Structure formats: structure tokens, C-alpha cells
Amino acid sequence: MNPELRYKLRGSSKYYFPSLSDKIKQKETECLELEQFPCAFKQNDTLNDFTNKWYSKHLESMKEPILYNQIGKGKKVVRFSNLGTWSSPYSYRIENKNGQIIGIYSITNGRGGYEAGRRIKYEEKILAKSNWDILSKKIDSIFWEIQTHDTLAILDGEQWILEVLINNKYHVVSRTSPNNYGDKEYSLLCKKVVEIFSSK
């Protein structure tokens, strides 16, 4: 089911991801007025307003910080968020704070394809420095070259959203159920974040 048909957005002043440029938005508006469908214009590292509000509402309910506006502040953060249509949204955030590696897990009682809920579990722990080195190496090997948007038009499934902020560099990738639709490398990278948080 198309999320635009099932998800009623409520107003939020917080956008957790960069928005489409005014130029691209104008193209979308003109396309819709002329009914030249499809009118989905994609721009790397940005989300359209609907998707941005949808993802942002869930991250806000997890009490997660906005990452993209922290560029240039020395932050080193990797966050994997999962919004399943029928399941509770959750996120794993791994942050390098001056060499101390902190892992944070949050989950809500909402539904990823519908309304946001409230956070029902929060876990924070210290991770081994070697884990950050492993994750960084994996990210550098494939992540930065992956386009933000999927080429497949999948209308139902889990939204796997991976964000990386390292100093002056931010990138976000969103895929629908990549473990089921052939995006193996991206799927393994997201799973690596979970694996590292779960390690002892």
C-alpha cells in the first residue's frame, strides 16, 4: 500500500533530513499542474516533503537528534532507522565522541507505516573502539557512492534508512526492504550497525 494513502501526517516543525531544493520543488509543481505523471523528482541527500515529514515524525518520537544540520561540528555518527509498515519503529545510533564509542537503541510503540507512537525502550552502552574502526572501513568501502533514492518503486515493506555524519560529510540512503529486493551490500551494512551495537 502506498504510504501516502495510509499515513495521516500531523504537523511538525522538525525536518530530520535535507529538503528538495526550491528549483526541484518548482519542477514538481509544474509537473503536477500539467499532469505529466510521474512527478517524482529525486535529488541526492534530500527527501520530498511527504517522506521527510513521515520519517521525521518517527525519529522525533524516538527522541533522536537531527544529524544533517550538525555538519562541521566535529560529530561522528552513524544511525540506522527501521520503519516497518506494521512493526514498531526503531533506531540504532553509534557515535564516536572523542574516541569513546557510544551505542544507543530506541524503539517506540508506533507503526512505521502509520502513526508515530512514544518511545518505550531506550538503551545506551559503551562499545569497543575496534567496532568503530570496522564500521568506518565498511562505510568508506561502499556507502558514500550509494544514491539516496531507490530506483525500484516498492509500495510496501520496511524503510531502511542509514545516515552517516562524519565531520563535514553527511549522506543518507533510504531503501525499502533491501534484504528482499537485491540490495545485498546496503542490507549488510545496515545489519552491521545492529551487530556492532549487540556485540559484547
Q: In a nutshell, what does this entry contain?
A:
The chain has helices spanning 3-6, 22-33, 49-61, 129-142, 184-198, and strands at 76-84, 90-97, 100-108, 119-127, 158-166, 169-176. The protein has 200 residues and is an alpha+beta fold.
Any overview of this molecule?
- α4 (129-142) runs antiparallel to α5.
- Strands 4-3-2-1-5-6 form a 6-stranded antiparallel beta sheet, sandwiched between helices.
- The chain has 5 helices and 6 strands.
- It has helices at 3-6, 22-33, 49-61, 129-142, 184-198, and strands at 76-84, 90-97, 100-108, 119-127, 158-166, 169-176.
- The chain is an alpha+beta fold and 200 residues long.
- The chain has a domain at 64-198: Mago nashi protein (2-Layer Sandwich), CATH 3.30.1560.
What is the strand and helix layout of this fold?
Layout: H1 3-6, H2 22-33, H3 49-61, E1 76-84, E2 90-97, E3 100-108, E4 119-127, H4 129-142, E5 158-166, E6 169-176, H5 184-198
Antiparallel strand pairs: 1-2, 1-5, 2-3, 3-4, 5-6
Helix pairs in contact: 4-5
General form: globular
Write down the secondary-structure element order: HHHEEEEHEEH
Q: How much helix, percentage-wise, in residues? A: 25-40%
DSSP helical segment count = 5
- According to DSSP, the number of beta strands is 6
- Structural class estimated from helices and strands: alpha+beta
Mean pLDDT over the residues: 89
Largest sheet: 6 strands, antiparallel
Our Rg estimate from Cα atoms comes to 17 Å
- Stretches where pLDDT is under 50 for at least 5 consecutive residues are 1-12
Distance between the termini: 39 Å
The amount of beta strand, in percent, is 25-35%
CATH architecture of the domain at 64-198: 2-Layer Sandwich
CATH class of the domain at 64-198: Alpha Beta
Strand order of the largest sheet: 4-3-2-1-5-6
The CATH topology of the domain at 64-198 comes to Mago nashi protein
